[in-house]
Design brief:
2 copies of one chain form a homodimer. Chain A has 343 residues and is of the alpha/beta class. Chain A has 12 helices and 12 strands. Chain A has a 6-stranded parallel β-sheet with strand order 2-1-3-4-5-11, sandwiched between helices. Chain A binds a DNA duplex (16 and 16 nucleotides) through helix 2 and helix 4.
DNA sequence: TTGTACGCGTTATCAA
DNA sequence: TTGATAACGCGTACAA
């Protein structure tokens, strides 16, 4: 049988409630009994039953993590382990555990979340993505359950805790940078349009083009999933156009990897023939050939800040929704070059 | 206030215990009351409190996942999300949730595990690595707590559930393959020596060399962490030798990425000057230049089988320790070539 | 400063 | 087939 608070109480010659107070380090217990009780705990190898505690407490000391529904290999993107590492770091500081959903489809994940929430498994939830009209976000919002979004909520933006980069600005800067190198035919390879991050970055790109009085061409914007194949596909589409872009903005390093591979295959040189710049600055960016210029978005910090924000929301339920912006920074490597005028 | 089993009972005009039986779909409850109770549950939006259930049940319907202590960027290796996806898939089938440790150092993680176990948070644990003399494994073993190791336990191998590839054989095959291409100076870039997987693969390599009557050179084996920098370092070390190897076996794709980058930088061509083959067949293997030959180890299956094994161990505590071997397969791409005799 | 008694929301045992 | 009632292990008023 497992050792309970009662066993400790018996051994220490005190009441169970006293033991409970010692665990909570209540100030109204004498040092002497504290020592006595702690010795008994030590001796018996006592550990509190967290379920019993949760039940009495109505608090679980656990956070739920919701990943996007994983169609295919999206989750192999190192983005996710890295955010989770950030969340983990903060959670550890405050002695919170982490809970993962196991569903694959959107519907399954939704059920997982409901179970987590209504089943009292977690005190709060981190959403690792922000999609347009997301059922799960909507549910949490309606339920007024503590949660934080990594990314920017599409609706009720000001009423929902969220942590994000300034993606509009980041995309604008990236585009400006390419323009400053002399590029005018700039392609934009984005994620799927249901993700808010896609919408934001696209907006930054468009704005920069407009400000520079460059034409916005519909056929230069391509929406794809965050996997390598997407990069390949995008390159193929560009090849079918009359004019291939001279520079490409890719919204994820993993996709960019596919782009580089496809270009290499076609004998299109980077950066001589086409410049490429992407987002996230994953570790691989340093190891592609040529090394990939990429926007550092501080993934770890996104996770850390999200957890931080969520914990505050849990401790102070009435707090106003926070919007935290994590810094970004262009990391320039070898994949971009001034436009070569060779006509 | 949350809606409990009592509220449902009241609305349905039955006793709480009856509601409980309906939830468990007990066969000794009339269809009529079942329907009645279910309607009440529906109407009130009832969801069971999982903590209360766990308390009464002594079962949590949750599995714990223990990752290796993350010094630096090791966890950015897509290996981890992929195993977890496998575990997730099986866990979902049996309606188990997943718990993550949040500690960073080995000591912290150990505490996490103790808390998980003694705190009754999980019914079993998956260890995502196998290290020599691992404190956590030792603890679980002593405690007789249900757990499964992904990898091969160093001690008590036959007494511990584990899921692994046949790494000795895999490394032997890889080495044989290179030998068959005419290579004799074959370098081996391994993980750290405290990991059992390193020991096994090294053994396969050595055996193949011996069987082929090729000399085993100490300076050709390099131990490193599973990150890209390691690949770079390894190449540097080889360069300091009198004879650079003509082929390299790398025990992880991420390290191989670093190797390829370093070789490229040095102007050493792959596969003309040196052949490279590695392990894990991550998605990136397809997108390096040249595309990387790699051993598919079926990471997803490792996770899936581990969860499967663990769940059986949980349901049948007295079952004998299982050892499951997951298939591997060499995937040949462009990074290996016959030895060029150019002297 | 400490002990008593009850509640947290379930499941399980024993009657009916 | 169903209903009381007692656990499960802990926290916390309230009392002492």
């Amino acid at each position: 049988m497992r050792v309970t608070i009662k066993d400790v109480a018996k051994l220490a010659n005190v009441a169970p409630s006293t033991v409970s107070r010692v665990i909570a380090d209540s100030p109204r217990i004498s040092e002497r009994t504290k020592v006595k009780v702690r010795e008994a705990m030590e001796q018996l190898g006592y550990h509190p039953n967290l379920n019993a505690r949760s039940l009495a407490n109505k608090s679980t000391q656990a956070l739920g993590i919701v990943m996007p529904s994983a169609t295919g290999k999206v989750l192999q993107n190192p983005f996710f382990p890295e955010v989770i590492r950030g969340i983990s770091a903060k959670a550890y500081e405050e002695e919170y555990a982490l809970y993962l959903t196991t569903g694959q489809t959107e519907e399954e994940i939704f059920e997982d979340v409901v179970k987590m929430v209504q089943g009292n498994r977690v005190d709060g939830i981190v959403l690792l993505y922000s999609r347009v009209d997301d059922q799960i976000m909507h549910y949490l919002y309606e339920k007024q359950f503590p949660f934080v979004v990594i990314g920017k909520p599409y609706k009720y933006t000001d009423d929902i805790h969220h942590v994000d980069n300034d993606n509009v600005k980041a995309a604008l800067e990236v585009t400006d940078y390419l323009i400053s190198l002399g590029h005018e035919r700039i392609g934009f390879i984005a994620g799927t349009l249901d993700l808010v991050v896609t919408i934001d970055r696209l907006q930054g790109y468009e704005r920069a083009m407009r400000l520079a009085n460059l034409p916005y061409r519909n056929e230069y914007t391509i929406f794809q999933e965050f996997v390598q194949e997407s990069g390949k596909n995008a390159v193929k589409k560009y090849l079918s156009l009359k004019e291939f872009p001279t520079a490409l903005i890719v919204t994820d390093d993993i996709m960019a990897l596919g782009v580089l591979a496809a270009l290499h295959e076609m004998g299109i040189r980077v950066p001589q023939d086409v410049s490429v710049i992407s987002f996230n600055n994953l570790m691989i960016a340093d190891y592609t050939q040529p090394a990939l210029s990429s926007v550092e978005v501080n993934i770890f910090d996104l996770g850390y800040e999200a957890a931080n924000c969520l914990l505050q929301a849990i401790h102070h339920p009435q707090i106003a929704a926070k919007q935290i912006t994590v810094n970004h920074e262009m990391i320039l490597r070898q994949s971009c070059a001034p436009l070569q005028k060779n006509d």
